[in-house]
Specification:
It is a single chain. With 347 residues, the protein is mainly alpha-helical. It contains 11 helices and 2 strands. The chain has 2 domains: 1-170, no CATH class; 171-347. It has helices at 10-35, 58-67, 75-108, 117-138, 143-167, 176-183, 186-208, 231-234, 252-281, 289-311, 316-342, and strands at 173-174, 344-345. Helix 7 (186-208) packs antiparallel against helix 9 (252-281). The longest helix is centred in the first third of the chain and has 34 residues, at 75-108. The mean pLDDT is 93.
Length: 347
């Protein structure tokens, strides 16, 4: 079970779970906003054309377009951007409340060992995320910032989940032989986590550079196993800023390089997680096996969604699901890491 122990603090535990659920919404809304090209739906920050929500009346739109002549109002893009901002802002308030309550509860009940460093770090991360959100607009979707903003969102989600695990007192109890066999796989588990994180970063780079359809066929790319590519330009993270990256600025060979490396990353993730799953399954624990099955299920569903993005030319629902499933796969590995590194011998 995901949560089977008695929480250290029920109020804080429930608030953390609520924040985690809200973070899921924020991550999915962020993916939706990016995929419908609404990242610059509001040319200013934190408002939208100077509004708390967005201009929707004729006179408001006329005034907004006069103030921002280079950014005509597109209502189908303004509302996704502002809805995402408000959900993200609400999440920030939840995380601030978690940090305040955790510090207070630790002072009142030190014997419970309530985590305080992680909530404080989450507050700092949310502040940084807000800055990335602002720079996403002011730097006109600069790919470096967009990718870091995506990684920050995934990090916030995972750290909230990790905090929930700690507050929930989750811990595997295994026999001495099972615990010994499990600990032998610690390096492989860390490598697996790093491989998935790198693949998510590559996915963010694909999205921020509009390279998702650079290879419209599969398993080959542009009809070749090794198509013409420009790696140096495609992965030039020192590229100049602006003026506007909406739709991307790279040429086809550069986008092909980005897309191709994401495919290589997918194969690497598949091989690594299959090997990890085999090793964990061999331990023979009834506690571990359900998690192995969950990991394999998420892995193959994610691969299926990735293939579907190519075959069906990036349908919005599939593309958003692919982003969400990447987060779920990462959360599964974070859960495994926490349980493996906190596992104790059964008495």
């Amino acid at each position: 079970m995901l949560f089977s122990q008695i929480p250290k603090n029920k109020k804080l535990f429930r608030l953390t779970l609520a924040a985690f659920c809200l973070a899921i919404v924020v991550v999915v809304l962020g993916a939706f906003t990016r995929l419908v090209d609404a990242g610059l739906g509001c040319p200013d920050w934190p408002g939208c054309y100077g509004h708390l929500l967005w201009p929707d009346e004729a006179h408001e739109i006329a005034k907004a377009e006069a103030a921002f002549p280079d950014a005509p109002v597109e209502l189908d893009k303004t509302w996704p951007e502002m809805v995402h901002r408000y959900f993200a802002g609400t999440l920030g308030l939840f995380i601030l409340a978690i940090a305040i309550i955790s510090i207070r509860e630790q002072k009142l009940f030190p014997q419970k060992h309530i985590p305080t460093k992680l909530p404080i770090f989450l507050v700092a991360l949310v502040i940084l995320q807000a800055a990335f959100g602002m720079w996403t607009v002011t730097l006109k979707l600069w790919p470096q910032v967009v990718t870091l903003h995506l990684l920050g969102g995934f990090s916030t989600l995972c750290l909230l989940w990790l905090l929930g695990q700690r507050l929930g007192g989750q811990q595997w109890q295994l026999s001495s032989s099972q615990l010994f066999a499990l600990n032998k796989n610690n390096p492989l588990l860390i490598v697996s986590l790093m491989v998935v994180i790198i693949q998510i970063a590559l996915g963010g780079w694909v999205s921020s550079n509009y390279a998702a359809l650079a290879c419209p066929d599969i398993p080959k790319c542009l009809g070749q196993w090794l198509p013409p590519m420009d790696m140096a330009t495609g992965f030039n993270i020192a590229q100049d800023i602006g003026p506007n990256y909406l739709g991307g600025q790279l040429d086809n060979h550069s986008r092909t390089a980005i897309h191709f490396m994401h495919r290589i990353g997918a194969v690497t993730v598949l091989i690594t997680l299959l090997f990890l799953s085999i090793q964990l399954w061999r331990i023979g624990s009834d506690v571990i096996k359900p998690w192995v099955l969950l990991l394999l299920g998420m892995l193959f569903l994610q691969i299926l969604l990735g293939i579907s993005n190519i075959v069906f030319a990036l349908p919005l629902v599939v593309a958003v699901a692919h982003n969400a499933m990447g987060a779920v796969l990462l959360l599964t590995l974070v859960s495994l890491c926490y349980r493996v590194f906190t596992a104790v011998e059964k008495v």
